[in-house]
Amino acid sequence: MLDGFGSAPRRQGPGVRLTRGQLIAMAVGVAVTLAGIGWSVASPSTAKPSPSPSATADPKRAAAAAAAIDELADQVEEAAGVAAEFEAPLAALQGISDEPARVAAETARQTYAEAVAAVAVPVKPARTADPAALTAAEKSTAAAQDELVAAAMAFHTTVTAFIGTMPGYAVQAVEANSDGSADLRNAVTNAAIKMASSDPFTPPWFAPWDAWRNALAALIADAGTSPGSGQGSGDRGTSDGTDTPAAPPTTTAPEDPPPATEPSPDTEPPPDTGTTPSAPPVTP
User: pLDDT higher for 97 or 7?
Assistant: First the structure.
């Protein structure tokens, strides 16, 4: 089933489609993971002695590292999809929202897409990889997740700031279309409030954005049906029950006739012979 912008509903994937609190928690988890890896590398004396002087493989650890890399790859793919899905909804709000805030959100979307594309997904280690190779893979995966989370949070912040401007913009839109009905003016105000409090990164996705566009379009259409009347369709009409007429067409005042051309004082008028001059004879 398609949404209001012609794209399929998004599946709920891991990682990038999270709330701000979840993103912060993920960032903290990445930091703790990095700290633990650094401690284990810097303090080999506290670790359990190796059963042999040579490095030994750890299949379970290798499998966990590979699973983390697979999850990171899914998150990168999902994030790229999010950045692409916001393009059409943001473009659809051009001219019916706070333009500087909308442009900032679109710029942030492009920056987010570039950051996601730049995330390097490590190569999965083999089951026989030694501890040093596993440590390198774990560090690379954690660093990539950190980059992805930071990019997502920056994009979330800018989009949230943009939709937060909608109530203020709605006030201007209602004033500019004051001829519309009171019900439609209220619908525009409520749609802007709902859009400002929504989270387009979670269900119902862009439904509040669609509702805003539809409410404003209805108000503009209603206000345009009664130009200059100052009344909406809900209370439009005269005391005798007839419809309020539209503003009368503007008439153009007749122009004054051009002034008569005065003869030049040096030109003498032709003599009045009282007869109409005949045509000159035709020469054979």
Answer: 97
Over residues 240-267, the pLDDT tens digits come to 333 333 333 333 444 454 555 544 444 4
The closest of 117, 81, 91 to 9, measured between CA atoms, is 81
Interatomic CA distance for residues 240 and 242, integer angstroms: 6
Burial 95-120 (b: 16+ CB within 10 A, else e): ebbbeebbebbbebbeebbebbeebe
68: left (phi over 0), alpha (psi -120 to 50) or beta: alpha
- Dig out the tokens for 136 from the structure: 């390198």
Q: For residue 70, what are the CA distances in angstroms to 34, 107, 164, 254? A: 19, 29, 36, 81
Q: Is the pLDDT of residue 42 over 60?
A: no
Q: Is 277 a residue whose pLDDT tops 90?
A: no
Decide if pLDDT at 177 tops 50.
Answer: yes
Q: Which residue from 217, 215, 223 is spatially nearest to 194, judged by alpha carbons?
A: 215
Residue with tokens 């279309």: 177
Three-point CA angle 104, 109, 111, nearest 5°: 95
Structure tokens at 278: 């005949």
Q: How confident is the model at residue 232 (pLDDT cuts 50, 70, 90)?
A: very low
Contacts of 254 (CB under 8 A, 6+ apart): none
Q: Which two tokens stand for residue 274?
A: 């009282």
Distance between CA atoms of residues 131 and 50, nearest Å: 11
Answer yes or no: pTM beyond 0.90: no
Is residue 23 within 8 Å of residue 153, measured between CB atoms?
Answer: yes
By the 10 Å C-beta count (0-12 exposed, 13-18 middle, 19+ buried), 44 is classed as exposed
Beta carbons within 10 angstroms of residue 133's beta carbon:
16
Residue count of the chain, please give it.
Answer: 284
Distance CA 29, CA 9 (A): 29
